[in-house]
Amino acid sequence: MQLSERQQEILRRLRDEGGTVSSNVLTNSFDVSVQTIRKDLNELSDLGLVKRVHGGITLPVQSNNLSFQNRQIINHQAKEMIARTLVDDIPEGASIFLGIGTTLEKIAEALLHHPGLTVVTNNLNAALILCGNDKVKTYLAGGRVRAADQDTMGEETTAFFRKFQVSYGIFGVGGIGENGALLDFSPEESHISRAILESCEKRILVADKRKYMRSAPVRTGLLSEVNCFYIDELPEGLDDLCRDADVKVIECSVQTGGCSQ
Q1: Cα–Cα distance between 175 and 100 in angstroms, integer?
Q2: Domains of the chain listed by start with CATH number
Q3: For 208-259, how does the pLDDT look when each residue is reduced to its tens digit (9 = 90+)?
Q4: pTM of structure
């Protein structure tokens, strides 16, 4: 299911207003009927993006990630902009780690015709995409296949990553805490991210703005361990954390179609 523009705006409003918003406020803001807003909220609730409460919605408390299919349709334009911007900064002939997630899948699509790459990944979709160019040398890590996330995980996967030393380690996170902690949903995911961080020359974090203040139970690292951070829009609070951590931030705006540093 593709989220409508109004549903995307409802999610933005929910984040901007601290995680709770009333149905009446939404009805008045969009100048639509109560029934229309109720339908939007029910669909967002069915996708696990919001929690219905009396009189409105809140952000869901999550100990598990959303399904891969749901993540594919959330902020897809922002993810495509991040991918295009990042790939422009990757030189020819580079060696790269690609981590898990839907943003990394978009990056694989953007890298498809990049000359002379060597890519190491546990992202099944990224590997399949890169198979479209026989000039890209792709290494797919083995391990336990997570069907719901379309990747591989486990000790074998982590050990495979640690066999390499690459130029660019590109990874995402489940969430970014208010203190700059990089968070994941499972120890297995965290181990993969740690292997990427510790086995590359330049550490590149990619995330859309909804990851800030999003809860996830496993602490993987800190923003200060990252060299570059590609994001669609830097939320208030996260900008200070990045400045304090001396992280280079590249904002990739869907609205302006450009990027800023």
Answers
A1: 14
A2: 5-61 (1.10.10.10), 75-260 (3.40.50.1360)
A3: 887 888 778 899 999 999 999 999 989 888 999 999 999 999 998 765 455 6
A4: 0.73
